[in-house]
Amino acid sequence: FSCAAPARAVSDPAIGKDGAPLAGSDASSGAGAAVDLPSSLATMSIAGSDASSAAGGAMNLPHIMPARSLEERFSVLRSIAEECIEEDELLQLLQNSPNPICYDGFEPSGRICILPRFVGNHLGVVKAININKMVSCGCKVKILVADWFAMLNKKLGEDLDKIQNVGRYMIEVWKALGVNVDAVEFLWSSEEIFKRPNEYWPLVMDIAQKRSLNRIVRCCQIMGRSEKDDLTAAQFLYPYAVDICQLGMDQRKVNMLAREYAELSGKSKPIILSHHMLPGLKEGQQKMSKSDPSSAIFMEDDEAQVNLKIKKSFCPMKVIEGNPCLEYVQHIIFPWFGRFEVARKEDNGGNKIYEGMEELLHDYGEGDLHPADVKPALARAINKILQPVRDHFKGSTEAKVLLKTVKVTLIILTSVVIRKMF
């Protein structure tokens, strides 16, 4: 059942020298149980799941050293989020649990952007980094592939087979990015809910009885829906079983309702780690939009497509606020590479390597770093990140067939939608 509401802001710690204090991801995580996860959950087997074995050679996902001390574990997990509710609860959880269960999830319903969100399949680069961060802290990561809920949410023609193909495709992308899938369990909601219906449905009824319909309607953003949308009854049934919940800032209502329900029911409240929401590439876009492909970078975009999208992106000179290119550098490039390399002619200041955002923002604000320097450097870095994904889907016959199947499905469904419009 979907549940949550606004939260107080907490200042963000630095993440060492990578200069990305707000590196965010969209994942739900846990280890104390607001709503208890099953103690034994089936694992989806993934052939060749070793992060280093994916087609395309060595993965370029940054190696994250295991965090051993309590302070290190807290710092690494806290660095995932722009906002934490509550920090003292997170610290206490880590003190009491060396291997907390971290719950994440995604709805398999379309193309994958480089940015992570549970809603809309922005299952991408930052999420990959954060999953490995959680693993480095000793967390047991369980990822729900929300196929059943994608069907309830009227995605991909409500065809469960098509939805599951997209789910398998997304897992292939994760493998190619270098996610440590050996330390991750992939769980399909279509299987998991029906394994324990005697626990799931009474919980749904209990939440329904303890909260008003208006309160629940306000939480429908978790499905990528608006309160004003004409929703079916089924669309109010959505999974929420976490100890640490890590979603985007736009999901605060769902997160906070979960805490309210847990407190009312005498259960452990989930710790909320809300990641920063990155904008679209165009001016004034608060979020990437899959409906506007030019505003979003997809995991299967080729080098030329990435270059063109970044070239046309909004990047006003000397303007830092609301500049998507600078946000991508901060939240994607620095966490991934630990630096940002700018190549330019000697007349324009020569090549420069930035070790942190502070210096980069200073130079950009002063005009010493030009948009014409930032954009090519950003495009090169993103292409370097995406190259193993491209190589994987070219080198693996199974992955290649899966990608083709997903593309054909999306083309057919798009044509159906267009025909209905005329």
From TrEMBL:
It comes from Eragrostis curvula (weeping love grass). This is tyrosine--tRNA ligase. It holds the Pfam family tRNA-synt_1b. Its EC number is 6.1.1.1. It catalyses: tRNA(Tyr) + L-tyrosine + ATP = L-tyrosyl-tRNA(Tyr) + AMP + diphosphate + H(+). PANTHER family: TYROSINE--TRNA LIGASE, CYTOPLASMIC (PTHR46264:SF4), TYROSINE-TRNA LIGASE (PTHR46264). It is found in: Cytoplasm, Cytosol. One of its GO terms (biological process) is tyrosyl-tRNA aminoacylation. Its main location: cytoplasm. Keywords: Aminoacyl-tRNA synthetase, ATP-binding, Cytoplasm, Ligase, Nucleotide-binding, Protein biosynthesis. The keyword Protein biosynthesis applies. InterPro entries: aa-tRNA-synth_Ic, Rossmann-like_a/b/a_fold, Tyr-tRNA-ligase_arc/euk-type, Tyr-tRNA_synthase. Catalyzes the attachment of tyrosine to tRNA(Tyr) in a two-step reaction: tyrosine is first activated by ATP to form Tyr-AMP and then transferred to the acceptor end of tRNA(Tyr). Belongs to the class-I aminoacyl-tRNA synthetase family. The keyword Magnesium does not apply. It is an enzyme of class 6 (ligase). GO terms for molecular function: ATP binding; tyrosine-tRNA ligase activity. GO terms for cellular component: cytosol.
